[in-house]
Amino acid sequence: MENLEVERILAGAMRTNCYIVSDKVTKEALIIDPADEADKIKNHLLQGKKRPIAILLTHGHFDHIKAAEELKKEYDIKIYCMEEERKVLENPEYNLSSLFGTGFRVSADSFLKDGEQMQIGPFFITTIHTPGHTVGSACYYVTDADKTKGILMSGDTLFHESVGRTDFPTGSASSLVRSVKEKLFCLDDSTPVYPGHDNFTTIGYEKQNNSCVGGEMGL
Cα(33)–Cα(56) distance, rounded to whole angstroms? Predict the structure, then answer.
């Protein structure tokens, strides 16, 4: 993953982490969870001379998707999301936009399956379905051409010493804990984790310190 660069943009009222994952050589970039403030994201890309080639959504909550449609049109790129998340993206009550202002919907161009592997430009991406925060929450394991070590974009599934809320529509606490233990904690301990809010972490650190899913599990 030596060619990967990860930059964080704090966007929107919820201070959501929007990430720009770029290739240091080609300057091609993935936009992960374009939360809000499309102009702020565009300016960041322009200043870094980055060329977006796709938008990946970890889930459909309003604070992770509000700028998606505008950026899609600006760069003529596709929006990707887990197939189980369609009803959250397209329902203002489920995506919570109707509760926090004017309701809106987002339409993805490509819906992904659990375990689906794809190459977008120089990026090799594995989709990991992690239901719990929402029914179609997903994490993305991203590597460059060497495919040896990657990074995890965890959305609101796994946080630094915490996990996402499960009291919103389609959420499930038991599903979330199961997702983290069975699908994320099997990754290498050194895997960097970039969550939807707050600070960065690693898989190994969370296995030992995340009391929400049982710290010091020894997995």
Answer: 6
